[in-house]
Amino acid sequence: MNYELFLIFGGLLVVSALAISFVGVKSERFPGSRGVLLGLCTFFFALVIGTAAFGWLHAEDEQHHREDEPIAEESAAKQEAGVPMSDMGATTVLALTSPASGALVYSPEGLKAAAGEVEIVYDNPSVVPHNVALEFEGKEIGKSEVVTNSESSLKLDLDPGEYVFYCTVPGHRQAGMEGNLLVTGRVN
Ligand SMILES: [Cu+2]
Question: pTM of the prediction?
Answer without folding.
Answer: 0.53
